[in-house]
Structures are given as C-alpha cells and as structure tokens.
Write a structure and sequence with these properties.
heterodimer; A: alpha+beta; OB fold (Dihydrolipoamide Acetyltransferase, E2P); six-stranded antiparallel beta sheet; 23% helix; 33% strand; B: 361 residues; alpha+beta; 9 helices
Chain lengths: 129, 361
C-alpha cells in the first residue's frame, strides 16, 4: 500500500490530513501498523486538551507492543474516534481511514511544513538501512 | 553486527512471507501475517512451529538416572515407561532456576533432554561440570543435527499422520507427555500451546521436506508471536521472563514440578527447604481497558508485585498476565497495575486462562 499523496507525514510515523473545516485528522501510517502488528487497544487524547508539537498524546497497543503517538503540530484536540475503541484492528485493515483524533492547529502553516508522501517514503527507506 | 543463527527452515519461512526477527541471536519468524489469526488457527484447527532453535541433548551411559536424580528438581524416578516425558527445572545450589526442560526416558542408559535456546550453552556446561565432579562417565551430546517442528491444535495429530506415512501406527496410542522413535525421527506428544499435538525431531536435512509436506496438507505456519500468546493463555512459564536464576521454582508457579517428598537429594533442595516461599505466581485478568505487559508494578493489599508476562489474550479478548505477588494475594482479589500514568484494575484469577480451544476464565 502506498502512502496517499494528499496527506502529510511525521518522522514518528503519524499521518495528517487537513479537513474542510480547518481541523486535522491524525492516524498512524501503513509502515507503523506493519511494524506493530495486530492492534488491540487505542487510547486517544482527551477532547479540549492543548498539545505541544511532538508531545506524547496517545497510545496504540498491538499484541506485541505499546507505541506512543505524538502530536504532529501544536493545537487543541477537537474529537477522538470512539469507533476505534471497539475495532482497533481497523488500523491494520485501513490505516489511512482509521483516524485516531482530530485537532485544530495553532498555526495551519505548521502542517504544510511536515513531510509529503515522497519525503516520508524516503525517510522510511533510510530507517530500514 | 553479529550474524544471526538460522534453522534449517529459514528459507522456507521467508518463502512463506514470514516477518523475521532477532530472537536471542536466532533469525526466527515472529508471524507470517496476523499473529491473532495464527493464534486462533492453533486453538481451532492446527498450525506448525519451527522450534529448531531449542536444543536436544542426549545423555548416555551407565547411571544416567542417578545423575538426573541429583541434577533435577523433579524426580526422574517418576519415569518408568520407555518414551515417557517429565517437565522439570534445573536449579543452582541457591535454588535459582538455571533452566526449565523436558526429559524423555528412553532406556536406563539413555535419557533425552530438550532445553531452551538461549540457555543451551550454559545448561550443557553445567551438566558436564556436574557429571565431572561426580566422576561419572556420561556422554552429554547436543544434537545440533536435529531440527524440531511442533504441530499443535485439535487436528494436529491427524495432519501429521497424513503428512508422514507410517507415523500413525507408531504414535496413535501415545499418551500425552510421551514419545516414540521413528527411524531417525522422534515423535513426542508434547507442546507449548495448551492444545493437543506433537513435537517432532527430525534430521536437519529432512526438515524442509517435512515442513513442505505439512504445508501441502493444509497446516499453516505459526510464528513466535502466537507461540507466546498461546503459552501464556495455557499458563506455561517462559524462561527468562517468568523465572530465571534470581528466583526459585516455588515462587514461580512451579511447585508441582519440584519433588520435595522423596528422600532424594538434588541440587538446590537444601536452599528450597531453608527458604519457604513468600511470593507466588498469580494469574491476572485486566478488568479496565488496556494491555498488561512484563515488568509493570502490581499493587496489592499484601504489598507490591510485578508482572512477569503480560499480553492480550486472543481467546478471551482481554488482557491477561502472570505476576509475581506476595503469597497472601488470593484468587478473586482486585489488584492495581501501574500502566504508564494510570492505575488499572485487574482481578486475580486461577490459570490456565485457555486450553483445548476454550477460554477457562
């Protein structure tokens, strides 16, 4: 599965999608879910919480291991995806639909500064060596 | 970077799409896709595991039984029938666990032992040292020429019989925890999953052929990831996590494997008798949301404990754990586990958590 061109990416393997209302949706990438394996638990940040860029704010756990999820930019959490509580495996099945939480960035330009799909793929390839 | 050791099935794993990991210096398959699917495959049908990293050791010569009586915490005198197996720990003089192992009684001059991969070298050195110090003339031979394939699950034995002509006649009357030789092969009705099945030792050169035969009969390969959740559900200890040289078997849920009743002396016995256990291994079922993991602290009314193995149970669809806790903790108690910045509630339960296809909680 290739990384969608319309998303932005972080070095900690989150993807970021800008929505029509100016919020951003955040999930973990195909590469991240492949590394972690079968997901069994997701803990999203509380709605209303203000996050600094790079702050640990959520957790995904697979059968194998727990992994922290980081805020890609600074901003305020507006929504958590409650559906993932009952079906964490959707992160494995369709990582780019299974968003974990949404936030309103303090500065929308911060999102533009993140990696695009090509840069992210190059980053993943470089980590593999 | 050191080169990882490979089993004779390494190429077969890669051809089957395995995700390979460094497992104690061995290049082993952790899964071939979904670990949870592989887990269910074994509980519901059957699957095959490459366990060739484990070491078979043959001990031959006069007085093997007397040697093992001294060496092991369980009593080899329980073995009276050819092929019968016994699970035991091997202890340090202070009672710490050097390893857990299975011994097979083949004859009064031949016992076969299977030890863990990561401990094999120190185990063999210890066995040789003990034999030498008692001036015993025993041949202690690691069998690196043998591969080992476990086929586990309710349909495992039938699949082995299909894949291995001639094996049914020899092995269909094997009672659990016993083994039979078949030419250069060795078929044992043992396992590490809580399901019926066989562990089969086979000359390394023939292992890829047998593995391919099993695959052709529809037996799915299972990685070490599912092996770990299967054994945890089955309440089976993992050396290095649930016990090691710093704890004794009585505080590791293994009192049933220690023979303190017979007058026999064995290495570690005096230390076990001198230090009655103050801790024990308990099963935990997480009642809050989350996943229990090794080394998380457990808070109980009787003091603090620690999780030794924790994961998600695919059969129960809940998180479970083994934890070393103060002896006063009782089944039914609620305890708190520190998970990151939270204290989560868990219930102390009797384990195994699942066996023979079913949850037991």
């Amino acid at each position: 599965m290739s990384n969608p061109e319309n998303l932005k990416y972080t070095t900690s393997h989150e993807w970021v999608r800008t929505e029509a209302d100016g919020t951003v949706s955040i999930g973990i990438t195909q590469h991240a879910q492949e590394l972690l394996g079968d997901m069994v638990f997701v803990e999203a940040p509380a709605v209303g919480r203000h996050l600094a860029a790079r702050e640990e704010c959520a957790v995904v756990e697979s059968v194998k291991a727990a992994a922290d999820v980081y805020a890609p930019v600074s901003g305020t959490v507006t929504e958590a995806n409650a559906e993932l509580d009952g079906s964490p495996e959707s992160i494995n099945q369709d990582p780019y639909s299974a968003w974990m939480f949404k936030m309103r960035p303090d500065n929308s330009s911060d999102v533009g500064a993140l990696m695009d799909a090509t840069a992210y793929q190059a980053f993943v390839d470089s980590e593999a060596h | 970077m050191t080169t990882l050791k490979q089993t004779p099935l390494n190429a077969a794993h890669r051809a089957m799409g395995a995700k390979m990991v460094d497992f104690g210096g061995w290049d082993m398959p952790v899964n071939y896709g979904s670990q949870i699917d592989e887990h269910h495959q074994v509980r519901r049908d059957c699957g095959m595991f490459d366990v060739s990293h484990m070491r078979v050791v043959d001990i031959k010569g006069d007085g093997v039984r007397a040697f093992l009586r001294h060496l092991l915490a369980n009593n080899p005198d329980k073995l009276t029938t050819t092929g019968k197996a016994l699970y035991s720990t091997m202890l340090r003089p202070d009672g710490g666990v050097i390893d857990d192992l299975i011994i097979y009684f083949m004859s009064e001059s031949w016992f076969r032992i299977v030890v863990n991969a990561g401990t094999a070298d120190k185990d063999i050195a210890w066995m040789k040292e003990q034999a030498a110090s008692h001036a015993l003339n025993l041949a202690i031979t690691p069998r690196q020429d043998l591969a080992m394939i476990a086929v586990q699950g309710p349909n495992a034995r039938a699949k082995v019989w299909e894949a291995l002509p001639g094996s049914q006649e020899l092995s269909e009357n094997l009672v659990p925890f016993s083994a039979v030789e078949m030419g250069e092969m060795f078929i044992a009705r043992t396992g590490y999953t809580g399901e019926d099945g066989f562990e089969i030792m086979i000359p390394a050169k023939a292992a890829p052929f047998f593995w391919a035969n099993l695959a052709e009969k529809g037996v799915k390969p299972i990685g070490l990831g599912a092996r770990d959740t299967l054994r945890l559900e089955a309440g089976m200890n993992l050396y290095g996590q649930d016990m090691d040289e710093t704890v004794n078997p009585l505080e590791s849920g293994l009192a049933w494997t220690v023979d303190l009743k017979s007058p026999r002396d064995f290495i570690g016995k005096a230390a076990l008798l001198a230090h009655p256990p103050t801790r024990k291994l308990a099963g935990l079922l997480l009642t809050d949301r989350g996943v229990l993991r090794g080394h998380q602290k457990v808070h109980t009314a009787h003091g603090e404990g620690e999780i030794t193995s924790g994961s998600f149970s695919p059969t129960l669809e809940k998180s479970i754990a083994l934890a070393r806790v103060p002896s006063g903790v009782a089944i039914g108690d609620t305890v708190q586990v520190a998970v990151r910045d939270k204290m989560l509630n868990a219930q102390v339960v009797k384990y195994p958590f699942a066996r023979n296809g079913k949850g037991m909680i």
